[in-house]
Design a protein that fits this description.
alpha+beta, Arc Repressor Mutant, subunit A, 3 domains, 9-stranded mixed beta sheet, 14 strands, about 20% strand, binds manganese (II) ion, GatB_Yqey_C_2, Gln_synth/guanido_kin_cat_dom, EC 6.3.5.-
Length: about 500
């Protein structure tokens, strides 16, 4: 068991600095340098060409769509787009890299010098500076068989699937992220999450974390104070969930604090994250860039996106998530805290669709963030997974607005919809939930209640309207809550002659 320092204690005594490298697999139909299919889930080694297998003499050709996607990402991250850039060979020997080098970009990335404002759950904004976004290709996938951990250590043999080899990637590298203090884990998580959201609206990737479409390498270092030079960093590789990104940062801060307290030096190395035990373990001593013997790829011409093309792409960028949130907040008239709750609950799309279905923004928020959030929590489900649609909530609220049901009955209608009994309208009909506003039906119930409580009638006639509630209550009970309470009150007073 690794000895740990309490996290709060560690961040009091050390200043954490982050660096995050995010790889995103682009959703192009074909691979980065050859026409092999790039789709997910095919039989192993059925989506290859001589290029992606690295066969001698095979020549790569750049995928134009991948370049366009890379430019889109660069622009969305406020980067400059290179007028000319080159690919480079990153040389290393590993079974999932059949060419013995990865075609990447080194000193000439396609996009550089950008930034992204990241919003934390409490609304704090932290600007993350982006050093570069470059194009490269994915490696194949090794499967280690026979061990208990799925890692190579202890495995009996390994299998390689080259379907993924050559799928286009964009790697986004931050500058050192400083000034985050005890919020380092949150910033790291929010940054990766913000990138994922951007990839999705840009439509450059499905960006599904669970499929490894987005993977983060998380660099963490500590230094005594914010004025000290940067400490030695560790790089935890291939973290593929938001929660894990947060946990890795937290863990590394505590672990490194122990080492530094003991007077040890931090080794610059890659580390592996173990989801089950919540710890990182040492991988390999990190190669410096020189060890990769980068050199310009001689088989590919430089990529020179014209300024016209870049501006064309810029002009077609969709509204980005943060701008969209601000616009919707203004349109909906939500307070900052209300909007944050909506965002954190992942309810923006649901509310947007509910409003489109005719509900007021206030009513839409009330349903999704109130009753439905409560039920989702109770079922440990996501809001979006509840068996009810925004259109149905719009219809439900329409029934309330029309005075056909009240809020209390609406909850029963909700029960019916969630139980699969159909749309709100049909649940109202089949359960007989419509408000009784027909005076004839109400008067029958009122007369019965008056006859049962002559003492109350006496008091009200005497000028004391207080006890009238007892009569109204009896009528509501007799009509199973479906009476219009305001109308009942009017009729009761009329009847008593008060
Ligand atoms: Mn990379």
């Amino acid at each position: 068991m690794t000895q740990m320092v309490d996290y709060a204690d560690a961040v009091r005594r050390y200043d954490p600095v982050l660096g995050i490298e995010v790889h995103v697999e682009l959703g192009t139909r074909t691979k980065m340098f050859c026409p092999a299919e790039a789709s997910f889930g095919a039989e192993p080694n059925t989506q290859t060409t001589p290029v992606s297998l690295g066969l001698p003499g095979a020549l790569p050709v750049v995928n134009g769509t991948a370049v366009e996607y890379a430019i889109r990402i660069g622009l969305a991250l406020n980067c400059q787009i290179a007028e000319s850039c080159r690919f480079a060979r990153k040389n290393y020997f590993y079974p999932d890299v059949p060419k013995n080098f990865q075609t990447s970009q080194y000193d000439e990335p396609i996009a550089f010098e950008g930034w992204l404002d990241v919003e934390l759950e409490d609304g704090t904004i932290h600007r993350v500076e982006i050093e570069r976004a470059h194009m490269e290709e994915d490696a194949g996938k090794n499967t280690h068989v026979g061990g208990s951990t799925g890692r190579i250590h202890g495995a009996e043999y390994s299998l390689v699937d080259y379907n993924r080899a050559g799928i286009p990637l964009v790697e986004i590298v931050t500058k050192p992220i400083t000034g985050v203090g005890d919020r380092a884990p949150e910033v790291a998580r929010a940054y990766v999450q913000a990138l994922r959201d951007i990839f999705r609206v840009l439509d450059v990737s499905e960006a599904r974390m669970e499929r490894g479409n987005v993977r983060a390498d998380v660099n963490v270092s500590l230094r005594p104070t914010a004025e000290s030079p940067l400490g030695t960093r560790t790089e935890t590789k291939n973290v593929n969930s938001f929660r894990s990104v947060e946990r890795v940062v937290r863990h590394e801060i505590s672990r490194q604090a122990v080492a530094l307290d003991a007077g040890e030096t931090i080794v610059q190395e890659t580390r592996h994250w173990h989801e089950d035990t919540g710890v990182t373990t040492s991988g390999r001593v990190k190669s410096d860039a020189e060890d990769y013997r980068y050199f310009p790829e001689p088989d590919l011409v430089p990529v020179e996106p014209s300024r016209e093309w870049v501006e064309e792409i810029r002009a077609t960028l969709p509204e980005l998530p943060q701008a969209r949130r601000r616009r919707l907040q203004t349109e909906w008239g939500y307070a900052d805290a209300e909007m944050r709750d909506v965002v954190n609950a992942g309810a923006i799309e649901l509310i947007e669709a509910t409003v489109a279905a005719g509900s007021s923004p206030a009513a839409a928020r009330k349903w999704w963030m109130g009753e439905l959030a409560r039920r989702a929590k109770q079922d440990e489900a996501e809001l979006a997974d509840l068996p009810i649609t925004p259109a149905q909530i719009g219809e439900l609220q329409g029934l309330v607005d029309a005075g056909r049901i009240n809020d209390k009955i609406a909850r029963q209608v909700l029960d019916g919809v969630l139980a699969g009994e159909g749309d709100p309208e049909s649940v109202v009909v089949s359960r007989g939930l419509e408000i009784v506003s027909d005076d004839g039906a109400l008067l029958a119930a009122i007369d019965e209640a008056l006859a049962a409580q002559p003492d109350v009638v006496e008091k009200v006639r005497g000028g004391n309207q207080g006890p009238v509630g007892a009569i109204i209550g009896a009528v509501m009970k007799a009509t199973r809550g479906q009476a219009d309470a305001k109308r009942v009150r009017e009729l009761v007073l009329e009847r008593i002659g008060a």
